[in-house]
């Protein structure tokens, strides 16, 4: 697997004109929604909990529906744009990195995506994924926040045109006129999108990042 990863990533860095877009996003409303959803699931004894990564995947899919150019493959002689958003999610395994796919994320709920992701991650770590479960996808999410990483740049997974790198949770001080001190602390995450300039112009990439940021800052946007 290491040889395959090395070959694909070397080719991607050498042939794809990468550029990066970074945004530091207030995720307090998404964290609050996650807490509410998990409390409801616990009360119902559903046996499942949703993660921040599940909300990130949904926010990515919703942003791709708003800026569909991003949801495309570079096919050398043409660009193929997809109607459905299939999100590849990077999973670390003993053999190396693999990206199982959550299909049709734009039309699925958070709980459904969360359950499916847990199943795929378990299969990935056991080496039981079938090719159709990890070959394909229209956009990728890579999250290293659990390792204490603040931000990083990820390499595009060809023929996809965008990969989103997710850093860890940070507590930052922001102005607040309603607080007697004039400021308060808030929870933020830094996200960096690497985009293929052959498919996604800078302004289009910025529009996508803006849509993603709006989704994470107000998760109601994901279902509108």
Automatic annotation (TrEMBL):
InterPro entries assigned to the protein according to its UniProt record, in alphabetical order: 2-oxoacid_DH_actylTfrase, CAT-like_dom_sf, E2/Pdx1
Record-level Gene Ontology MF annotations: dihydrolipoyllysine-residue acetyltransferase activity
Domain of life from the UniProt record: Eukaryota
One Pfam family matching this protein: 2-oxoacid_dh
Gene Ontology cellular-component annotations: pyruvate dehydrogenase complex
PANTHER family in the cross-refs: DIHYDROLIPOAMIDE ACETYL/SUCCINYL-TRANSFERASE-RELATED, DIHYDROLIPOYLLYSINE-RESIDUE ACETYLTRANSFERASE COMPONENT OF PYRUVATE DEHYDROGENASE COMPLEX, MITOCHONDRIAL-RELATED
Protein's UniProt name: Fatty alcohol acetyltransferase
Native source species: Agrotis segetum (Turnip moth)
């Amino acid at each position: 697997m290491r040889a395959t990863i090395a070959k694909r990533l070397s080719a991607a860095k050498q042939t794809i004109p990468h550029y990066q877009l970074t945004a530091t996003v207030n995720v307090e409303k998404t964290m609050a929604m996650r807490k509410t959803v998990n409390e409801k699931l616990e009360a119902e004894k559903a046996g499942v909990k949703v993660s921040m990564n599940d909300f990130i995947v949904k926010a990515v899919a919703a942003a791709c529906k708003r800026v569909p150019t991003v949801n495309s493959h570079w096919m050398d002689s043409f660009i193929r744009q997809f109607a459905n958003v299939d999100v590849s999610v990077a999973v670390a395994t003993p053999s190396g990195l693999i990206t199982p796919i959550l299909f049709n994320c734009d039309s699925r709920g958070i709980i459904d995506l969360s359950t499916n992701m847990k199943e795929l991650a378990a299969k990935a770590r056991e080496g039981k994924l079938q090719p159709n479960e990890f070959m394909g996808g229209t956009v990728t999410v890579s999250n290293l926040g659990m390792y204490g990483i603040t931000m990083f740049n990820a390499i595009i997974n060809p023929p996809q045109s965008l990969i989103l790198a997710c850093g860890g949770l940070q507590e930052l001080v922001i102005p607040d006129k309603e607080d007697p001190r004039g400021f308060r602390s808030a929870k933020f995450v830094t996200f960096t999108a690497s985009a293929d300039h052959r498919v996604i112009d800078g302004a289009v990439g910025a529009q996508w990042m803006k849509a993603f940021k709006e989704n994470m800052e107000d998760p109601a946007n994901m279902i509108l």
